[in-house]
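Recap from last week: sequence in, structure out.
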Amino acid sequence: MLEHLDEPALVESLRELVRIPSIGGTDAEVEIQDVAAGMLRDLGTEVDRWDLDLDELKRDPLFPGVEVERRHAVGVVGTTAGEGTPALVLQGHLDVVPAGDPESWLGGNPFSAEVRDGVLIGRGACDMKSGVAANLAVLRTLERAGVRLERPLAVHCVIGEEDGGLGGFATLRRGHGGDAAVITEPTSAQIVTATAGALTFRIEVAGRSAHGSLRREGVSAFDAFLPIHSALMAFEAERNRDPDQSFVSDLPYALSFGIVSAGEWSSNVPDRLVAEGRFGVQIGEDPRLARARFEDVVTEVAVKDPWLRENRPVVTWPGGQFASGHTDADHPLVTEMTAAVVATGGPEPRLAAGVYGSDLRLYTGIGGIPTLHYGPGHAQDAHAPLEKVEIDQVVEVTRSLVVLALRRCGVAPR
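Predicted structure tokens:
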């Protein structure tokens, strides 16, 4: 069977996907979904391609939030023939984050999909177009081998994962599901059975403006923010004491500030500061409780500070709201994925937990689908300058997924 895996076609499909600059919220995010739909049709699946009703989805009480504006978004699912509910779902997102400073790409085009010494370079190569290319290659391998599956295999191509999970949420709300799912996020070919959550926060701190030469006549919003920052960093340390050893990081629930802005004039005391960032949610922690705990820290600082007591900081929660998610490590899917890796000549993969939020929590939570991550690429290359993926690892992952699909879906008699 595995001799039917067409490695050049796998690489070429990955290059085609990487060349499309499918940054969240852009027209290219729609374009790449249409390209994926065409690929799925060419591979003989029944394709459901639909326009997302963004207004309706936003009204849903479980809507996961977004951080970029979209006028149009598309969902795509390809399903093979077979009886009943898909026995296996392979899922991947095709949206990418912006490429960043062009200089960090050493003068190259971030979307050129250049291959050097067995490594493909480009924004989205690791996170996670290589995983989507692997999913498509599973279908291509089965087709080339002339195999008809007894139970359906579904491939979900989604967008909006990077800023909340819009595409995965919409796909589940559309009614697409399965007995089990593998999301081919970059895991260094490890099996990830749990992911932390992440909540986007915004803190607004008031000050009182004055001329910079008479700064004591005013109240700096920046200075007022400093004790809040200090308290939140102590809160982060408390939440990360004695982390689970399955995490690849000793700071699995990071609290980081991505944007801090204050003032409008260099010689004025700033009268307003806005800080935005991400707050890590512990596995199994209700996001509502996590938000309340965060707000309690800010409130505690405010009641002890004469200025903040009368000018309370405002905490809001815009953008993506990722709950945590997990599948029991002893679930049969984990055993089957492990066996598929070993059957294709790989070492028994380590079971791990991810420090990032992902669509796993939507598939396990809203969808009720046992789900794990297993995919090519290293997490440290995701979102990074000169993002890359090793082609050999993409091939290895694809081989394991082919075996898993055959074993889970079964081969229909001729």
